[in-house]
Batch of 2 targets.
Target 1
Amino acid sequence: MFKLFETLDRKAFTKATIALLLTILLVFIGSRNLQNFDAALIAYLVGTLFAVFGITYRYSVWLQRPPTKMYWRRSWQFLFSRNFIPYIGRSLNLFVRNILFQRFIYPRGRSRWIGHFLLATGCMIAFLVTIPLTLGWIHFTFEPGSTVTYEAHAFGYSVAKFQLNSFLAFNIFHVLPWCSVLVVIGAVMMMRRRLTNGGLIATQSFEGDWLPLVLLIAISVTGLGITYDYTFLEGKTNQFMSVTHAITVILFLVWIPFGKFFHIFQRPAQLGANIYRTEGKKRGMAVCPHTKKEYASKMHVNDLKTITEDLGFDFNLEDGRNHLDFSPEGKRSVLAKAHYKARKESGKFFG
Ligand code: HEM
């Protein structure tokens, strides 16, 4: 117990507590003082609040790592520079390509991309619907005086109206079953890959690679159970279906900060790394003194020197240069040559 307090990151704890309190405040504001909050969803709310706290805590600890901190600081500095328009345009473009469509997976395999895309799209849409519902930010009522027109409210304001029994209403009420179908197909495709790819079979772990897929399938299948129940069973098994869905969703929410799903929140930071690379190229590339080839931006090399120095590493050479001025290829070559010279001088090449 005391060990926990010793290792507690106070900065991250403070930020996570602020995020938690802000979310609770937004529940009150968004649901108009709990008027539109569905009390049946309290367990989901507790799971969501735990996830908010845990994700903020871990993100904050991650941002404190010197390289991440440098990338983070520089990304915002370049974004809000005089190049704001091109950088925001580029970031939006990459957001659509690499976050919404995850195109960076495509070169690794077409079916791998299709599987991930279906799974990610299903999850993203499901979160966009269920999290605001759970927090009481959106709810549905009949239009006053009507029994055929439904009204959607966000933060207590009417935002859309639609006719019951219309095609639109059917899809609005069935958006989660559609998401479940996408998630199940995507997860099964990913599982198939994990069962047939020799490299994966050798390296995968249950907790890191199978559990996330099993959990997503469990959430989707139990969710579909709710739909099946009210569509075909007249709600006779509602309690069982609702409880099993709640259990799987809450397990998922509580696990987000600790497991593989945390990458959903880390990935978007990659947009900053792209701005960093672009800006670095503009400012000039570093040339390796050994290979005479460009290998990274001068800014990247200088930032690396700052970070390694902060971490207590001294890479300065006696002749005033620095190990980090050499490209990885150059470093290997210099090292091999030094070994060769030492062997030659000792008169023995083997043993
Ligand atoms: C992969 C993500 C998810 C999928 C595919 C999914 C799927 C489903 C489905 C198909 C339903 C039944 C909808 C209906 O026909 O009315 C449902 C219900 C529900 N889901 Fe999920 N869900 C997901 C994640 C979540 C999350 C993250 C939350 C909460 C934070 C959540 C909360 C709920 C709630 C409150 C209900 C209604 C439960 C009830 O009527 O007892 N779901 N979900």
Target 2
Amino acid sequence: MGGLGSILAAEKQPNDMKRDYYETLGISKTVGDEEIRSAYRKLAMKYHPDKHQGEKQAEEKFKEISEAYEVLSDENKKATYDRFGHEGLKGAFGAGGFQWQNFTHAEDISDLFGGIADALGGFGFDELFGFGNTRRRQGRGPRRGQDIEHEITVKFEEAALGMDKTVEIKRYDNCSSCKGTGASLGTKDTVCQHCHGRGQVSVTSGFFSIARTCPSCGGSGRVIKDPCKDCQGTGRERVKKKIKIKIPAGMDNGMRLRVTQEGDAGDKGGPRGDLYVAVHVEKHPFFKRHDNDIYGEIKISFTQAIFGSSIQVPTLEGKTYMKIPAGTPSGKVFKLDGKGTPAIMSGGAHGDEYIKVTVDVPKRLSAEQERILKEFANTLDEKPVKKPKGIMDKVKKAFR
Ligand SMILES: [Zn+2]
Ligand SMILES: [Zn+2]
């Protein structure tokens, strides 16, 4: 489109000589969005490039109405234009004035161009106008390899404390026979004769010239005459590979690790894709985890609760002692500062450990224990309850 731009720049009239945008579209200043659009569509159809192949005037006209539409369909630009005229829009489209790159309403008339696009093998409207330059280009040159997904299951502590792990993955590497060239040993790929190594060929229709991926070489610009037998010229082979990964401390169930450049090998010397490792964390027999905090529950005897005690509790780094003060009620939660997992996310806080103690009520007492406890109960002025033997038997019967 560079050539087209320079031609128009040379022929461009000074701003004050420019035609009024409303006049260009043949509408009055008071019409609404829908009328503006329909007026533009009608004119776009009239100056359709299909009907005026190679006619410079039609091409210019088509661009002129498109510029008018670009301005009048944009609320802000229209307001500026209504107040200050062409002078107000100086600089709105850059130094060279309106270019096709400035046209943002391709979709409004894209259906008018279906015929051309089809004729050229399914090109989108974007490509007709040269908008596609930055969005396409799949086939050309080196391509980055695919990313790979892998899943692993780790122990609770491994995730919490972090560790090195080796995973075995399947991925594409460069073929070891041809070192990824795809050409059999001792031969080389050659420049594609069809596109002369450009990877693209031009297709012309009317005043549009479109670059498309070369069908002969797939866009690489090179062809392999004598393909490698081991990889059939693909340059790649599927291999099993052991990869060392580092599980950072604080990893949680469902998180993913990204290991850069350990995915599939790239094409034509392109970089490797990445390896993504989804981490599943096994359940822990004692701990539950919530964010970076860990939770556990421990039983103490009722005398420990009454008199206080020092009890052993598990932590991620082994057992430690925790003080139970005298008179601890069942269900009380104790916090062990900093005994949770490290924060894996930046800005997160290191977790804590929470231990809930429940008082274990003994189900069977020795005669001696019973006697002492009854004595204790008497001091509370409680009437010891007789064992409801008969009632229990009846209940048991009912459940049989
Ligand atoms: Zn090979
Ligand atoms: Zn080619």
